[in-house]
Inverse folding.
């Protein structure tokens, strides 16, 4: 019989007692995460996942790596791959950078797996709500993009981009030997200002606003990626692969991803994506 994991099998409850939100350790972790999120929209909860759980989730990812959809394309920060004549050549919309990475889709997992138990746990979801200081956090209902693993094999990178969701949660599972660093420019755009000039400087290797974050196995990152430009640097050809579990959440329940980006990341869409596209209402007027 397949073992069903418990959250306290997976999370270091001594340091992060998710079942005791009034405890000193919980409140200390919460205060630190909130401080980071208020400062620049990025919080790292160090060693949240137990080493034994990291090894278990690593095996779950490796066992399903054959289902990864890998793709290589030249894209702008808005996941577009073709030039837009409405904008000048030297513009973020018309600046394209290689993206070469892969995603294990949501339908590769099942409820018996540690990675799935962690993603759907009430305790972790409540902790994320508390960190973000909101009650509006729900597991992303998208059947492909809700729970994924991002794969960067040797030689690959994830180019500068913005997320479609307001925030994302990443658990580092397998670090690269070198490279594979998370870089970001905090809150570079707002719902009312695309900040094209600042973005173009970053795309042209101006690092004056860039922050670099070295995540380690077991770390959990909460990141507001809708308004912060970010990337994962290239994993050298001599390195081992970088694997990260991506736990996607939304402010509203029942959200399904957009057809275009789903097809880019997973190479396919399901009927649920087509149906959701027909009734979609945009939450802001940003390019994407």
């Amino acid at each position: 019989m397949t073992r069903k994991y418990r959250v306290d099998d997976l999370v270091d409850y001594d340091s992060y007692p998710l079942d005791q939100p009034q405890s000193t350790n919980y409140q200390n972790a919460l205060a630190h995460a909130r401080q980071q999120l208020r400062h620049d929209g990025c919080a790292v909860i160090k060693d949240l996942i137990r080493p034994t759980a990291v090894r278990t989730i690593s095996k779950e990812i490796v066992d399903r790596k054959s289902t990864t959809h890998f793709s290589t394309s030249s894209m702008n920060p808005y996941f577009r791959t073709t030039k837009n004549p409405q904008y000048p050549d030297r513009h973020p919309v018309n600046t394209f950078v290689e993206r070469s990475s892969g995603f294990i889709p949501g339908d590769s997992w099942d409820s018996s797996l540690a990675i799935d138990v962690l993603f759907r746990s009430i305790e972790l979801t409540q902790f994320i709500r508390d960190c973000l200081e909101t009650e509006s956090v729900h597991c992303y209902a998208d059947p492909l993009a809700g729970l994924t693993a991002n794969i960067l094999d040797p030689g690959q990178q994830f180019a500068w981009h913005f997320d479609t969701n307001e925030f994302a949660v990443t658990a580092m599972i397998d670090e690269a030997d070198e490279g594979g660093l998370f870089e970001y420019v905090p809150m570079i755009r707002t719902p009312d200002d695309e900040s094209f000039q600042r973005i173009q400087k970053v795309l042209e290797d101006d690092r004056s606003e860039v922050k670099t974050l070295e995540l380690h196995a077991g770390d959990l990152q909460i990141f507001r990626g809708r308004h912060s430009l970010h990337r994962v640097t290239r994993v050298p050809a001599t390195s081992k692969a970088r694997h990260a579990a991506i736990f996607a959440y939304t402010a509203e329940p029942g959200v399904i991803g957009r057809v275009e980006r789903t097809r880019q990341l997973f190479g396919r869409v399901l009927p649920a994506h087509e149906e959701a596209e027909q009734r979609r209402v945009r939450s802001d007027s940003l390019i994407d």
Notes: The longest strand covers residues 242-250. The mean pLDDT is 94. The longest helix spans residues 24-40. Residues 201 and 207 are 8 Å apart (CA to CA).
